[in-house]
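Note to self: the last two entries modelled the partners one at a time, which told us nothing about the interface. This time every component goes in together.
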Amino acid sequence: MSRAPNPTRRSPRVYYIVFACALVFSAAEAPAQVELTVAPFMAKGPADAPVTIVDFSDYQ
Amino acid sequence: MKEYDGRIRLIFKDRPLAGHALARPAHEAARCAGAKGKYWEYHDLLFEAQPAFERADLLLYAGEVGLDRAEFARCLDERRFAADVEADVRQAVALGIMRTPTLLVNGRRIEGAPPLEEFRSIVEQALRERR
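The predicted structure of the combined assembly is written out below.
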């Protein structure tokens, strides 16, 4: 079954988490908070692990 | 990072950079593999094979990890995961992530791949902070 790309589509395999990312762009800016989607097959390790590492990478 | 088994959750996010023409199909291909239970095997192959990411290469790697190549080709050609990769890119941009790799370790941002010892130290600190 084909699935046309649709930015608003949310796969049932995808759940949503919110990371309060303490990203200090400068001392004057507030930390950014961005909702990150996580495809379960792109995550490994226990969901309640004390440390979560989010790796933004480029294969090329 | 076997030594941290059970204490770390690793989440991979797609951040193909605009200047890398072959990156986006590779990220979509990895998700096609993931949908068939072969995400991490395919992911590792891509890093070993970079930057050989032409369509024929991506199909070859699918075969190497034991996927049905015809079915994989359909997933790739239909761009079934284009929206998901784009969603990751948008989230990265919203966070101001413009270079790769960028890691968030319990929210602490690390740009570039740190040496192993430095990375271990960052993880140990994050673990101590959670105790």
